Amino acid sequence: MNKILAKLSKGSIWLLLLLLVIPAAFTYFAWQITDEASRKSAHEKFTALAYDSERALRHRIESYKQALRGAVGLLEGSDDVTSAEWISYVSALNITQNSPGINGIGRIDEVNPAELDAFTDRMSADKGYPFLVHPQVDSGEYFIIRNIAPFESNNQAVGLNIAFEPNRREAATHARDTGKATITKRILLVQDAEQTPGFLLLLPSYEKGMPVLTVEQRRAAFRSWVHAPFIGKNFFNDLTDSQGQTLHLRVYDGDQQDADALIFDSNSEQSVDTSTQHESVKVLEIMEKKWLLSWTSTPAFDALEASNEPFLVLIIGAIFTGACGVFLILMGIRGSEESGTRAGYLLPAVAFVMTIGVGVYLAEEFNLNERSVLVTDTIKEARGFRRAILTNVEDRVQDLGRMANRWVNQGGQTKETWQADAIQYVADQPDLKAVEWVDSSYHVRWVEPLIGNERAIGLNVIKDPTTRVALSLAEANSSVTLSSPFDLVQGYKAVLTYSPLGSGDSFDGFIVGIFGVEELISAALDLSRSENFVVRLSSQGEEFYRSANDSLPSDPNLVHQETILLLDKSWTISVFPSSALMAGKKSFLPPIIMAISVFLAFLIAQLIITTQRSRQKTVLVQEKENLLSTFVRHTPAAVAMFDHKLCYVAASDRWYTDYGLEGRDVIGKNHYEIFPEILENHPDWKDIHQQAINGEIIKVDEEKFQREDGSLEWLRYELHPWSKGNGEKGGIIMFTENITERKQIDTMKDEFISTVNHELRTPLTSIQAALGLLRVKIGNDLDDKAKRLLFLSYENCKRLTHLVNDILDMEKITAGKQTFQVEQVEINDLVEAIVDQNLSFADKYNVVFEMQRCDEPIYMMVDPHRFNQALTNVLSNAAKFSKDGGLVKVLVENNDDHTFRILVKDWGIGIPKSFQSKIYEKFTQADGSSTRAAGGSGLGLSIAKTIIEAFDGEVHMQSEEGVGTEISFVLSKNAAPQRERNVA
Predict the structure, then answer these.
(1) Cβ of 207: how many Cβ atoms within 10 Å?
(2) Do residues 220 and 243 make contact, with C-beta atoms less than 8 angstroms apart?
């Protein structure tokens, strides 16, 4: 070793050590990235398991709510339901098989203490044995379990007064007063011998036809609760296959991990492992209650996801670094002995090939691993989507099956009872477009909703022999059948389910459910997850649903198919990763490895040659220019590098593509030779180019470029000078972008806005005026249905007019065409007038506007009309999202710094924290049911903010979800915009 080192100069030894730092650093960097990628991949898989668990929980509780909803329909469709009828109905649901985890379905009555004896006598007569109420309570409230089935496992609960315990009483009162499905806090069921944690799910039922809009009305119309008791360990058991194996699930009552609030622990029999590597905690809003779910990985998951890739990278990198060291030592020896000979090129070539070879091997290994992970994820997701679709469709079939069971149990139904049941189903299920009753002659007799489906009445549903055979078999076998997906005249694709009513001689036809395919499948697929994968469904070889328009991947292994057997039909589901997922999943490590290996190979080889040639300066300069040319050529933009004579030094691939130069060699040629039209059509560009060569940076946002064939293009370009190492002028680098398409789009947008302004707003104004006149002139002469249709038409016309005006206002503001006509106003009076103008809006949403003036007058130069628009938008939002009977306060406050503030405060639903950063963006609204119900274009706050800022003001927002929102304008009392001022 000493002899070898003796052949190297001191400078060569230092160079050798410096060069070895590069592969060593590369090895460490690759190890760090691989280790982080392995951890990230494992955590993503864990997160997916936790999300599957959450989705399964939500689906299970929602399906059980639907089962109780059917029992509510049974109560509301009958004057009285006997114990025998209740037991018969619950038995028909077969909850033991169809609803695992539910302990039973029961009915709870609220009994007046004065009528308690009469109630017990009536129940004893109904049941045929003494009916005992227990326990006695001091509160004087009696919420008594009247019926529950199956009786054998719940007999101790019959006669139980659930008002004896605060958690039960609180949930029952809440459900009665709100009309919402409600879960109790953590309780112990009287029928649970082990006394493990559980809960009740309660749904209220009301007298049919009575109003239930307010708490008082709901209490007056209240009839009974339908409830289901759950034992926690039974309900949460086996939510997913991974639960208890690779995923440890704990469920707590409330939003804290309190041992006393624990409802379920999937691994309670195992010792607690505090060394878990992955954890996820989430608070869910479930049926008016909060549950905290804690997922942790088990040792089995951590062992399964452990990867040896980081260690492999470390070993290969160490070998690679050692090989580089050997070659560099040999290079130093051979370079000093054979400098200038052909043998001196052998070592650089061998080093280059071996370095590239190692880089290719590492990159390919990572690519194969990424592909394997993606294939595995695709198979997993395909099976998950298959289960979700199968479960969702089967749930829908079961729901309509319960409706059919009620028909059979009641021996038929009146039209009013059937309609009430159908309306409830359509309201609860967004994917259910309509429900029909088809009689035994296969003709549609009833349909709900009727509006939009009038032509279905009397329609013969048997359109071809295949449908006749399928329905005849369904009638004979008393089984549900499913149609193939087909296009409806309403403009959407649908599938139909036919649930027979009875069998044999008592056949009464079918309950038909019409489901929109798009909504049915979207309800099954979780959108946030399905965005990562493209889902295609086909029936009999014909595709009828696709979640995205991505094309099939070139690798057939990334496309996975599963068969879904639905009743008497078979669907095929094909799943493959979306292009966005494949791009996101594609690790940057393989290209980095290749880039570094190419760079390292090139560097080592070049340094060998440079050392052998005594590091000639001219060679180094030449290689730097080559590197720069390579960089320019591969830049993903239209870039060209010119010398001081404007001859091409380098050009990017995009430059060749954008200007039709593919296949031509432009390097070394003059720019004006390549584009002769410049001297003819744009002679001034020659001076601009010279200015840039002389050191000036030139930027042009847009300019026309007339090509040699007479066509026009729009360009955006920048010119930057570059110089040589000795300070001599080198030339210019030109960055260009063809913006012709964008200009065309801007023109189309202007034409569209003009069309909206002239062809839509004008007729809308006329229509609104006509509808308003009709309401005044003949509104009182119409029947209730016609009045409602006229009112809806007028309100929808107003809403559309506001939307069109908002769009036009925002376009004018964005285009900088908005002007202001300012005048001096007293702010207190102006704000008070605006509030008074919007009192009708407050009445519409049943809120109260309360204004508080400033003690002293405040004057400002402002456009009253536009200021009115800004404040009105804020007031309308406050009214929309306030609670029923809420208060909206408007305050004018004088600050000490020559400014004043206008504050609009409400105590409504508030703005979610995750959405607050987007509140001023155009066409944005928080994604919540209450927000969607309130409506609006999503432009109000954006317009208000732009108007206030035009007057040098500021808009501030403070909000807390569930507490309320404050929007304030801060303006200067001395601010005075120009009389006509553009707003950009």
Answers:
(1) 12
(2) no
pLDDT digits (tens, 9 = 90+) for 594-613: 777 777 777 777 766 666 56
- Beta-bridge mates of residue 904: 890, 967
Residue 262 contacts residue 129 (beta carbons within 8 Å): no
Categorize the per-residue pLDDT at 979 as very low, low, confident or very high, splitting at 50, 70 and 90.
Answer: very low
Cβ neighbours around 156 below 10 Å, total:
15
Residue 487 forms beta bridges with which residues?
A: 493
3-state secondary structure 598-658: HHHHHHHHHHHHHHHCCCCHHHHHHHHHHHHHHHHHHCCCEEEEEECCCEEEEECHHHHHH
Question: Residue 442 — left, alpha, or beta (φ > 0 → left; ψ -120 to 50 → alpha)?
Answer: left
The dihedrals phi and psi of 836, each to the nearest 5 degrees, come to -60, -40
Contacts of 733 (CB under 8 A, 6+ apart): 632, 639, 640, 641, 642, 719, 720, 721, 722
Nearest CA to 838 among 890, 773, 910?
890
- Give one word for 393, left, alpha or beta, with left for phi > 0 and alpha for psi -120 to 50: alpha
* Residue-wise burial string across 505-529, b where 16 or more C-beta atoms lie within 10 A, e elsewhere: eeebbbbbbbbbbebbbbbbbbeeb
Helical segments of 737-893, H only: 740-755, 762-778, 784-814, 827-837, 839-844, 864-880
d(CA 139, CA 232): 28
pLDDT 10s digits, 343-359: 456 667 777 777 777 77
CB-neighbour burial class of residue 360 (10 A; exposed 0-12, middle 13-18, buried 19+): middle
What end-to-end distance do the CA atoms of the chain give, in Å? 74
Give the phi and the psi of residue 56 in degrees, each rounded to 5: -65, -40
Q: How confident is the model at residue 13, as a pLDDT?
A: 60
Number of neighbouring beta carbons within 10 Å of residue 706: 14
Identify the CA nearest to 462 among candidates 454, 452, 472, 453: 472
Identify residue 562 by its one-letter amino acid code. E
Q: Is 41 helix (H, G, I), strand (E, B) or coil?
A: helix
Answer with the residue of higher pLDDT: 311 or 1.
311
Q: What is the pTM of this model?
A: 0.47
Q: Give CA angle at 948 (946, 950), nearest 5°.
A: 70
If we measure between CA atoms, which residue out of 567, 565, 421 comes closest to residue 499? Answer: 567
Q: Which segments of 66-220 are extended strands (E)?
A: 105-111, 142-149, 182-183, 187-188, 197-206
* Residue 442 DSSP label: S
Asked if 71 and 226 touch (Cβ cutoff 8 Å), the reply is yes
Helix, strand or coil, per DSSP, at residue 553: coil
Residue 634, class by beta-carbon neighbours within 10 Å (0-12 exposed, 13-18 middle, 19+ buried)? exposed
Query: What is the rounded distance in angstroms from the CA atom of residue 192 to the CA atom of residue 165?
Result: 16
- Helix ranges restricted to H, 659-755: 671-674, 677-681, 684-693, 740-755
Distance between CA atoms of residues 640 and 668, nearest Å: 12
